[in-house]
Sequence to fold (1202 residues):
Amino acid sequence: MLRIPFRVVFEQRGETARRLSLLVPLASVLAALFFGALFLLATGYSPIDTYINMFRDGFASFNGITDTLALSTVLICTGISAAFAFQMNLYNIGGEGQLYLGLIGGAWAGIALGDHLPTLLMVPVVLLCGAFAGAAWIFVPAFVRSRLGTSEIVSTLLLTYIGASLIKHVIYTPGSFFRNPNTSFPQGRLVADSASLDSFGSSRLYPTFFVALVIAGALYWVVKRTEFGYRINVIADSPKAAYYAGIHANRTTMWVMLISGALSGLAGAMLIVGPYGKIEPSIITLGYGYAGIVVAALARNNLGLIIVSGILFSGLKVGGNNLQVTTDTPIHIGVMLQGAILLFALGGEAFRRYHIHVVRVHDVSTKKVAA
Amino acid sequence: MNENIWILMSGDAIAIATTLILAALGALFTERSGVLNLGIEGILLTSAISSFLAADASGSVWLGLIVGSLIGALLASIHAVLSVVFRANQIVAGLALVIFGTGLANFLGKPAEGKTVTTVIKPISFGPLSDIPVIGPIVFGQDIITYLAIALAIVASRYLFSTRPGLELRATGDDPATVDAQGLSVARIRIRYTMIGGSLVGLGGSWLMLAQSAGWHQAATTNGLGWIALALVVFAGWRPMRIIFGAVLFGFTLQLPFTLQAEQITFIPSAFLEMLPYLATLIALIALSRPGSRNLLGAPRALGTPFVRDER
Amino acid sequence: MSNTSHEVAQGPHHNSGAASTALSAHSIDKKFPGVLANDSVDFDVRAGEVHTLLGENGAGKSTLAAVLCGLYQPDAGYLMRNGKRISLSSPRAGLQHGIAMVHQHFRLVERFTVSENVILGSRDLPFRLNRRELNEKVAAVAESYGLPIDPDATVGDLSVGQRQRVEIVKALYQGAEILLLDEPTAVLVPSEVEKLFENVHAMTAAGKSIVFISHKLGEVVEISDRVTVLRNGRVTGHVPGRGTADTKELARLMVGRDIELNAQRATHATGHEVLQIRNLSLSVNDVSVLTDISFNVHAGEMVGIAGVAGNGQRELADTIAGLISPTSGSVTISGSMTTDRGPVQAREVGLAYVPEDRLGMGLVPSMSILDNLLLTRDRQVVVDRISVRPEAARLIEQFEIKANGPDHLARKLSGGNAQKGLLARELSGGRGATKLLVVCSPTRGLDVGAIETVRRLLNDARSSGQAILLISEDLDEVLSLSDRVLVLYRGAVVHETAGETAQLSQVGAAMAGLSGGGR
Fold:
């Protein structure tokens, strides 16, 4: 039998060092980039050129940084959506599907109600309809999770696939309400002007960015300071203590999941009032909902940190998307790096929580005797 | 109505069930050891494209299958190390693997886009047996991997319930502290079966590519089969034999849209048919979790929880 | 049997191969973060004897046992088996040398059958398992030591005593020559203890060595050939056992000072009825858990509920606390019916509840003391922590909780301090002034100092007129503290007696379901 002469010993850290809380995520990103570099080299691309281009297109140019902030508007929302549920050990990984529904809900309001209301009212209505549609999409998983304990992981994900079919259906079916009736090429019908915001100057950044920031801040406050947040914290840590204190876990579970769904739906509606103005069927290939999970995990579900990780991550994505144009590197390297960063961050997390030392096995029992 | 099409469909349903059986068996072995690997979808995709590239380069489908399985084991080992050694959150680690695998597969698949498989796995010929009406094409019209998948499920069942390593595997998923007290290494068992599970998933993905799809269509190649496989394990109550039945059932719902289309039955919107397998899985999942359901009792008790020896 | 034991008590030289030391440990050191659990400990056990490791919780006896069986590796020191130096890298290596541990918390897979559990981890098992053959083999090993078990029974269905038997059979099946029994009597009723001791004698007669780990003086004196006492990780004495041992001396060695563990029962008049339970029954999934229970607890009275774990104690406590709705019957707390009203309402009329599971049910581990104080109190929509902070600080001081202030996390409290914190919150009232305190296993797992404090707090609460329901599996605790004792067996009250006149034998028999008298 193969005997490994070393043993890895994990020792729980008493106090988590503050500098590690920052260092570890940063090191994870660097490690993932290093891994990506090896991969690029092996497949015949230049890692240095790739990364320089990614950085320039993501952060270091006017278009880059505004595009990054524009994308982060969506990712911060889907990120909070994921984190808000994750912090209570509810794994809503169907944010992607809820975002599709937010697009549909928002577009419906924008088309159906558009001509009757002024912009000042119309935009909030579109956003609310999107949020409502997102919440509706998670209703069944939330209900069966809180009543029957059905795994929300698989159910929310299955609904994402159903949501993707729905998006295709409303766009590709002739005569569909959401389809532009004036073109033979299938595309979404534009929402009313009153339901569209203007972007800042020549950029593609919309005021919804600030809505996302405000929502992140507001939810942070809710979790830290309110009774609802207190309940979430009790249930997340020990369901038995919640039971003991008479806190209804079922009801809180339901609400947390509905809010999570609403936030992803909101992200979709923000695309309607912002850059899209209609249902864009290519949304099902972009994975903004999934990216929210990475954003949340990188921020360790801390609603405040999500703004930082959301922006960082958006930069990476924007930079990655431009690669195909600028260097002919497949854009999928961006998605792969997302996954890699998350994997390294998870590994790094162990270094934050534990003192890890490697011990030689045959030493442990005889160390002192020999000395 | 054309009877042949329905017979053909039954055959195809069993065929598509092959991937589901292999992927679900992989998930089952992993979960029986107490590790929850949600990364199945990512593993399926990556092994599919790897097998394509390997088969394309070498001209051998068998090499493709081997490479696909190895890649499956390799990706699963990432999950194993993260969740067993580093005690990471298994749910997030699995999701990370899906994202990573999807990106990696599409990156690797760039040169394969538009190409089709030149060599495919062909059905085994049973001579006159294949000509028996109805039964012939369904039972005797499959390729070797399909038969292998069914055989594997049967072997897995025997392995799990009447061998020494099977006993140890079940114990590890149920009560790792007990296994540890016996001086068996929980970590080693978990890593081993997570990797074995990954290779089975990888085999399923490779087969899907080399026997089913004509070419590489990015994420559409698997289209959520990995997630259905995960639900299938719950559906089967963590028992290998029941996976066969569940997989065939899901195979039918996956195959139905194509058959109905061929039959020119159009009163059901195609989008709905497209949703059908996911909807069916969802309904099955909910139905199975009603209170007191016997199926959930089969769930390994330590599923998804890292094992930490109680050292004060 | 008695003859043999007498001779053994004379000295170990009687044994074959004069003083053949089966296993010895030499200057063992074992460190954990912040604690030196074993400090140059010497220990040895001979073939055919019972050598007891005596010490209170945290004295290091379980650590030493873990080192002896290979679960832990010592930081310094070494082991010798039959005169040869050995090093054990794992429990499996221990087993190879014939050393096996029977853990206090059984290491059995509940869903497996008895024989599956027994053979799990055996080295010489064939790849393919023949169920019938293995069942026969397991049954044969069991019977040769007078330990009858059904190899096909599912372990989850067995009683605690039966499970312990499975553990012992398992060790013997694997060829153990030296068995380490970690607090084996902690979970048994008196009649089961007798049975266990018979089994122990059967094993030593067959030449096996038993390392018996315990903190109960009475049984130690009864079963041991020799006793080694540990305190704070150090050996404080090697003492001969059976017949010659002096209980007082052992207690002094164990605790380090003279101590009166039996808390004094304060006698005084009791007041009106605070808790009234009438015909309480509870069924879970059609299985009857509590059957027709009726009793009262008065102001200034402590009523103890004795019983072996799993006879409905937890359900009774949860039902009184309003967490479970009974199938029939009623609970009344200081005049208000609280049946079916939930825990919040029960608290409003004066309930306080200290569950057995301190950290995880009574306290939220990742929350601060301050936030834990809020757990059972009235919180506004926006949680007001500022106004509660002074109270938290006051309670920390008053209950002598070792903490860095109200922001100290609950999970970083020691067991004793967590229990003090829990009692502080529950006794200080919250939604209403505390009138009734339900406590479950209040001293389990605590060190002697903390046990004294907790018992003093309970007595003080009673003196101040609160009604107390004490539910504990520690029979000594129940008998020494309670004014009245009820015995719960299979969900029914089968025995009732006044605390002062309670007879250990009668209560013990009732706990084992052997008597229905006294009520």
Summary: Chain B has a mean pLDDT of 85. Chain B is about 70% helix and 0% strand. Chain B has one domain: 3-122+131-298. The domain at 3-122+131-298 of chain B is CATH 1.10.3470 (ABC transporter involved in vitamin B12 uptake, BtuC).
